[in-house]
Write a structure and sequence with these properties.
With 122 residues, the chain is α+β, with helices and mostly antiparallel strands. The protein has one domain. The protein has a five-stranded mixed β-sheet with strand order 1-5-2-3-4, covered by helices on one side. Strand 3 and strand 4 form a beta hairpin. Helix 1 runs antiparallel to helix 2. The relative contact order is 0.27.
Length: 122
């Protein structure tokens, strides 16, 4: 995978938290999953950023009523090419504890994911 971790990784999480400010549970789950993905799958030295977040099953405010767990489909793509470099499934609770981080075939979890987060070189 050619996408990497930035020194200022906190900036990525600040961007990801903006649309989720009213939903602390899902926001904590998203932050934990993105941090775990970067630490597990992304080689150091390449800047990345959250470029897109897509709700999958319902408006995000409905998820804030739930304590989770939340399933997050993560994709790593090239900024200009859109080429898929990697993907993973993350399951985390509302407190931000990652329960599962794995890479099963995307067709087994994407349709059921709470939402999808797309990371790109940036």
């Amino acid at each position: 995978m050619n996408i990497g971790k930035t020194v200022a990784i906190a900036g990525m999480f600040a961007v990801s938290a903006v649309p989720l400010a009213a939903s602390a549970g899902p926001a904590q789950a998203l932050d934990a999953c993105l941090e775990s993905y970067v630490e597990t799958y992304v080689p150091a030295g390449h800047p990345i950023k959250l470029i897109k977040q897509r709700e999958r099953r319902a408006p995000f405010t409905e998820f804030s009523q739930s304590s989770g767990p939340y399933t997050i489909a993560i994709e790593a793509r090239g900024t200009e090419s859109g080429k898929l470099y990697g993907s993973a499934r993350c399951i985390a609770d509302a407190r931000g504890h990652v329960i599962v981080m794995d890479t099963p075939p995307p067709h087994t979890y994407r349709a059921l994911a709470t939402f999808t987060a797309v990371l790109a070189r940036g």
